[in-house]
Amino acid sequence: MLCWNKKLCTLAVLLAICGCIGIASGNLRRPAKVGLVCCKAVSKAMIPSGIKLIGYKHQNALSPCVQAVLFFSETEKYCSDPTARWIPRKLKGLKVIKD
């Protein structure tokens, strides 16, 4: 027989069940982030002054994403080349948007 006695078998089964429940419920505690904003290309063109920007964030290059500064308006996102000379002026007064 595989189990030496009934108590030991019962304990082993209960531990296995508790372990499975613990692993399954662990996934429920993780935040569910749905949308990923990722620039795959950038532009050095200046964002027109008539567009009201609400914030920005820096993006690191991690394929397929490229190194970028993302500017956000109420409805759009703009993927800008971080080496563009106008970027530091545009960042002034904007809040950093966290992930």
TrEMBL record:
Gene Ontology molecular function: any one: chemokine activity
Lineage: superkingdom: Eukaryota
InterPro entries registered for this protein in UniProt: Chemokine_IL8-like_dom, Interleukin_8-like_sf
Keyword set includes Signal: yes
Signal sequence region: 1-26
Record domain Chemokine interleukin-8-like: where: 38-93
Gene3D superfamilies membership: 2.40.50.40
Biological process, per Gene Ontology: immune response
Keywords from the named record: Cytokine, Signal
GO CC field: extracellular space
Any one Pfam family match given in the protein's UniProt record, by short name: IL8
Listed name of the protein: Chemokine interleukin-8-like domain-containing protein
